[in-house]
Amino acid sequence: MPDADAPSATFRELKEPTDIAAALEQGRLLFAGSCEFIFGAQKLGQLPPQTLPEIAFAGRSNVGKSSLINALTGRKALARASSEPGRTKQLNFFNLADRLMLVDMPGYGYAKAAKSVKEDWQEMMFDYLRGRPGLKRVMLLLDARIELKAHDLEVMKLLDKAAVSFQIVLTKCDAVKPQALARKQEAMQALTARHPAACPFLSLTSSEAGEGIESLRAELAEFALPPT
């Protein structure tokens, strides 16, 4: 498969091995710190005060959001998938070492979810996205094994409309053959060019195999408050 640990953003721009190693170590130290669930908000009025930079994780139901958050933090069950995909509207907030807030957004696009639930998701998520100035980036997870869905494109348009920077993260990349994954990566790169809020790079990950996790930690560490 393509190099899933290739650095991205300013991390990607690093050339010297010592600089890359230092950035990876900063990411490791951040995500090795304490990480605690602090609140689950079902309504906008329930959102906790913004005291830390926020990184939100969005994606279709069963795309692997919980698995990715658990892999990044080195926990087995910090984030848990809902027993009823597509029906949970809760935003879950995790305090990472008092330096960064991880926000697990409810999954979207579940076929059995009622229409009203889907509409409520869009309304609540849009209000959250446009009304949260501390939100630094949305990591938009897409399953590398399957084709892009209409709901994914709708969410990208929603992020463009909210003017919130988002980055595509391909999940379950270990289950895709190298040539197919390379084609998928090329298609996703072309897609980002059509969305003004999209970052011009993407991450390839496998929560199970650990691919891309170290570099993604290093990248997210760039948004964290400095260690005290």
Automatic annotation (TrEMBL):
Q: Where is the signal peptide?
A: none
Q: Which taxonomic lineage is given here?
A: Bacteria, Pseudomonadati, Pseudomonadota, Alphaproteobacteria, Acetobacterales
Task: Report whether Magnesium shows up as a keyword of the record.
Answer: yes
Function per UniProt: Necessary for normal cell division and for the maintenance of normal septation.
**Entry protein name:** Probable GTP-binding protein EngB
Q: Which GO terms describe its biological process?
A: division septum assembly
Q: Which residues form a coiled coil?
A: none
Could you tell me which Pfam families the record lists for this protein? Answer: MMR_HSR1 (PF01926)
Q: Which family does it belong to?
A: Belongs to the TRAFAC class TrmE-Era-EngA-EngB-Septin-like GTPase superfamily. EngB GTPase family.
| InterPro entries, per the entry | G_ENGB_dom, GTP-bd, GTP-bd_ribosome_bio_YsxC, P-loop_NTPase
> Which Gene Ontology molecular function entries are recorded, alphabetically?
GTP binding; metal ion binding
